[in-house]
Amino acid sequence: MIPYILYTALILSACFIFYKLLLQKETFFHLNRYVLLFCMVLAFALPLVPVPQQFSFRKNAVENTISNIKIPTETKASQTIKENPAEPVQETKQVINVDVVLKGILYLYWFGVVIFGLNFLMQAFVLLFRSYTGSAIQDGKFRIVEITGDKAPCSFGNNIFINPEKYEWETYNQILLHEKIHIEQKHTIDLLLAEIVLVFQWFNPFAWQWRKALETNLEFLTDDQMLQHDTVERESYQFSLLKVAAPQFPLSLTTNYNQSLLKKRIIMMNSKKSNVHTTWKYFFLVPLMVLFACLFNQPAAQSQTLNVNGEEKQNAIVHDGMKTDGNWFAVIKGNTIEITFKSDENNNSSTTFQLNELSSVPRDKQGDFSLTREAGTMNFKGKFEGDRGMGTYKFTANKDYSTTMRKEGLDISKDTDLMVFFMINIKTSYVQMLKKNGYNSLDKDQVIPLAALDVNEAYITSIKKAIPDIDLDNLVPFKSLDIDQKFIDEIRSSGYKDISPSNIIALKSQGIDGKYIKDFRSSSKIQKNADNKGNSKNNDEDSDDDIIAFKALNVDKAFIDSFKEIGFDNISNGDLIGLKSLNVTPEYIKSFQKAGYKNIDIENVMALKSQNISPELVKEYKSLGFDDLSLEDIVGAKAIGTTPAYIKSMREKGHNFKSLEKYIALKALANN
After folding, report:
1. Percent of the chain's residues with pLDDT above 70
2. pLDDT by residue (tens digit) across 494-521?
3. CA 515 to CA 70: how far, in whole Å?
4. Are 268 and 21 in contact (CB under 8 A)?
5. Cα-flanking dihedrals φ and ψ of residue 381, to 5°?
């Protein structure tokens, strides 16, 4: 639950930064409104979308071992500890219980949700109460509710709250027109959604800023609509904004006339309109969200067989909360026996053992048999009928083993911990081997996945030849991803001299090998810069993200070379990613070059593709008499809906313009 909440907060924060940096100053208020609403919904939906494993960047140790080993975290409420009276009793150190802390944080979060949820419901109730208990005038579908006091005008649903005694007639009419625009465009829905987001993201400062940005854009949008009316003069309207400023503001669920945004609104009203051919930048929100999904979303799980017995392959699965006694069900398959341990209704654990590890198995009669390992003994009672059997089990821990492990620096005195070590068959010699190789500060949570993945001495030695200072936390994902010395040497020979373990893991998880890196470096602009600077470490590090992005989008050497063949030799990595994400092909560019646009650049190509413009569409414009059209003109016309069909329909109505820009202006007025 907590990871989902934090991931949602991260997506919302990233979208807000994207909006603030790239979109906030654009005058595409309608488009900005839909982007803001879409991102709010996406923040809560995206974390729930699974990502194919080949595209996921989440290849850490936990994810690769969790499908094979689950470490018990529940222990018995009480344990009997035998003590030697002659030996002094050692006091146990009190440590922070992480589970308790996380549970406390979760309770605090839900407490905040309840408080903000009640506040939201109270505001809605107060507004509805005021709407239908006060004096109101029905104006078509609008209800004008008269209020008293020095409060700013506002609207909620189809209700307009205003004190008519405060304003002169012209200002009063402008206020009503302003609030009617809010109501007609259903801006209350936007604010309700933003308030619901705040209920669940009350701790996130970016969520509060998001609501403010959405509210501000709604005011910009409404101001823009106001100025389209013939009866509203710009100077008169801006002056009325100053006169309406009030010391007391309405509830946050309302759209109000003043909003304490006077300076921003007046600046935006007098700003130059954004150029329509820049709308392609909105499409870069898509690869940003894809990157987030690849970085943080849970990949589709793929189980794997672990070598936990040295020579024999077997599945070692220990479920959370597995008890030291319970029932068992078994199936003999050749030389192996698969035993399912059932300690209660919710806890089942299946493990495959070698049949020769067990003492005599009772056939067709009730009997006892056992399995002994260094960590303890598992005693079974029951019988087999043919190859299937059932009965009860009880695990008895080996206290001498626990003492020996304590001397090696591992505290596994609890029976549940010892049972995990028993299931995986972790021997004392294995821990001694790890210490021999320089890993002296060990804990059980490190040793368990290492042993389960059979990270043996030969493997450690080979990896240390390539990376002498590799730590245990990196050995687990190395082994689970099948990273060996040969792979590391191959990556280094491709141009990486000082690559870190985390870089190796990221590359391997995406299926990136030395050949792919060489192709990338020989084809991309980064490689040219790196050659000029002596293949510096910084350039290696800077190209990591590009290499991974190239692989995720399948930007290969053939794709890059296909653009070089038509004259695009110096395409930046960012532009290559943009071309691939928009599905731009060399054939698409050639079609425009054949149509007469010889010097087309990448920026124009992406703008054309984002608007789905083809050479056939360009010919249609030219057939209408527009011979000297630039690509920017065509993008602008298409973006606002000034199609050849629209121009023909306007000419039939008597609007015969020689300039395409006049038709664009005419369409803009019609849209508003």
Report:
1. 81
2. 877 778 888 888 888 878 888 888 777 7
3. 37
4. no
5. -125, 140
247 touches 166 (CB < 8 A): no
Tell me the three-class secondary structure of 138-178, residue by residue.
Answer: EECCEEEEECCCCECCEEECCEEEECHHHCCHHHHHHHHHH
Alpha helices in 228-256 (DSSP H): 234-244
Q: Does residue 32 contact residue 489 with C-beta atoms inside 8 Å?
A: no
Helix (H, G, I), strand (E, B) or coil at 347: strand
Both tokens of 327, joined, read 């029932």
Quick check: helix, strand or coil at residue 485?
helix
Give CA–CA dist 132/583, Å, rounded.
54
| Six token digits for residue 266 | 């007046």
Residue 508 CB neighbour total at 10 angstroms: 19
Which range, of 186-200, 201-215, 233-247, 658-672, averages the lowest pLDDT?
Answer: 233-247
Residues 270 and 511: their CA atoms lie apart, in Å, by: 52
**Residue-by-residue DSSP string for 26-49:** -S-HHHHHHHHHHHHHHHHHGGGS
For 590-618, b/e burial (b = at least 16 CB within 10 A) is eebeeeebeebebebbbbbbbbebebebb
Task: Take residue 198 and report the two structure tokens written for it.
Answer: 């705040």
| Unique residue bearing structure tokens 């705040």 | 198
| CA dist., res. 72 & res. 69, Å (int) | 9
Handedness of CA 159, 165, 169, 174 (dihedral sign): negative
The answer to whether residues 69 and 447 touch, using CB atoms and an 8 Å cutoff, is: no
Give the other-Cβ count within 10 Å of 65's Cβ. Answer: 22
340 in Cβ contact with 350 (< 8 Å): yes
Question: What's the full length of the chain, in residues?
Answer: 672
Which DSSP string do the residues of 557-615 spell out, in sequence order? Answer: HHHHHHHHTTT-----HHHHHHHHHTT--HHHHHHHHHTT-TT--HHHHHHHHHTT--H
- Entry pTM: 0.45
Q: Are 621 and 645 in contact (CB under 8 A)?
A: no
Ranges of H-type helices in 467-572: 472-480, 485-493, 501-509, 514-523, 525-532, 537-553, 557-564
Integer angstrom CA distances of residue 242 from 63, 171, 274: 59, 11, 26
Q: What is the mean pLDDT of residues 22-47?
A: 87
Tokens of 464: 């240390």
Residues ≥6 apart with Cβ < 8 Å to 12:
39, 40, 43, 197, 201, 204, 206, 207, 210
Q: Among all chains, which residue has been given the structure tokens 């911990």? A: 417
The angle, 0 to 180 degrees and rounded to 10, between the axes of the packed helices 573-581 and 537-553 is 10
d(CA 402, CA 405): 5
Calpha distance 266→262 (Å, rounded): 6
Rounded Cα distance, 15 and 9, in Å? 10
Name the 3-class secondary structure at 640.
Answer: helix
In what helix (H) or strand (E) does residue 450 lie, and over which residues does it extend?
helix 444-452
